[in-house]
């Protein structure tokens, strides 16, 4: 039901990705998570995702703001993002006691949303990238994510070289999960501190909601992290 990244296992931290078994297509993930953990809905913060490159620093004010990444040092609250093919990414710095959640679609990846979240952790909370754990959740992968050339060009401009894209004749395929892993490494985050799901949401429609597989209308799964 919950997928727990192997690298974020401190007893006072909960980090997980949900599957479609967690919530029906018409039930919000956050409500399912609140029920599962016996917490109030106010203890789950979700930003208003709009494929921006804005990083929100969550303080005492809980009103949702437009952003596609949330960073906080608050305890007793989950920060999360909702996805159905895009990449959910969780961040944790045990030294500074800071967590983050990032929604990286192709626009966010082309605009370096993950790097900007790490920048905020460093600048606002004095986190060292070498201490940050990263968990990259299930998303649509290179096997199934055909995109226009301009999409590959945009993501390559932000990511540089790597085996996260392929061209077969005139068709372009992209792996945003691996592009974000490369971007994480470029910030000084270490390979040992990165966990990456091997699942493709499109290839496992029984396990995950996939916007592309469903042809549009579908539910959402989430990535959540919080300190208790
Ligand atoms: Zn696939």
Would you write up a description of this structure?
This protein is α+β, with helices and mostly antiparallel strands and 228 residues long. Helix content is 23%, strand content 28%. The longest helix has 13 residues. Bound molecules: zinc ion (ZN).
Q: What's the quick description here?
A:
The protein is α+β, with helices and mostly antiparallel strands and 228 residues long. It has six helices and 14 strands.
For the record, the CATH class is Alpha Beta
* Number of discrete domains: 1
Global shape:
globular
Helix content bin = 10-25%
Weakly predicted, low-confidence segments: none
CATH architecture label name? 4-Layer Sandwich
The small-molecule ligands in this entry are: zinc ion
Strand content: 25-35%
Q: Please tell me the overall pLDDT.
A: 96
Written as H for each helix and E for each strand, in order along the chain, the element string is: EEHEEEEEEHHEEHEEHEHE
Q: Which topology does CATH recognise?
A: CNF1/YfiH-like putative cysteine hydrolases
Number of helices: 6
Structural class: alpha+beta
Tell me how many strands there are: 14
What Rg is obtained from the alpha carbons, in whole angstroms?
A: 16 Å
Specify the CATH homologous superfamily.
Answer: CNF1/YfiH-like putative cysteine hydrolases
Instruction: Give the strand line-up of the largest sheet.
Output: 4-5-8-7-9-13
How many angstroms does the end-to-end distance come to? 21 Å
Major sheet size, sense and barrel closure = 6 strands, mixed
């Amino acid at each position: 039901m919950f997928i727990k990244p192997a690298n974020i296992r401190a007893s006072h931290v909960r980090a997980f990705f949900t599957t479609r078994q967690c919530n029906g297509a018409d039930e919000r993930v956050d409500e399912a998570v609140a029920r599962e953990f016996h917490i109030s809905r106010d203890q789950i913060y979700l930003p208003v995702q709009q494929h921006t490159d804005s990083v929100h620093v969550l303080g005492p004010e809980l009103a949702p703001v437009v952003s596609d990444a949330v960073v906080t040092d608050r305890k007793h609250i989950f920060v999360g993002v909702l996805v159905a093919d895009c990449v959910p990414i969780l961040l944790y710095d045990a030294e500074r006691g800071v967590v983050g959640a990032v929604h990286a679609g192709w626009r966010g990846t082309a605009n370096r949303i993950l790097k900007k979240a790490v920048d905020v952790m460093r600048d606002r909370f004095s986190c060292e990238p070498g201490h940050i754990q990263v968990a990259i959740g299930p998303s649509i992968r290179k096997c199934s994510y055909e995109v226009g050339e301009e999409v590959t060009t945009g993501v390559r401009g932000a990511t540089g070289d790597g085996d996260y894209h392929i061209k077969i004749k005139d068709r372009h395929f992209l792996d945003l999960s691996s592009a974000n892993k490369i971007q994480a490494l470029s910030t000084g985050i270490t390979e040992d501190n990165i966990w990456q799901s091997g699942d493709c949401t499109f290839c496992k429609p029984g396990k995950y909601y996939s916007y592309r597989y469903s042809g549009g209308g579908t539910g959402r799964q989430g990535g959540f992290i919080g300190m208790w």
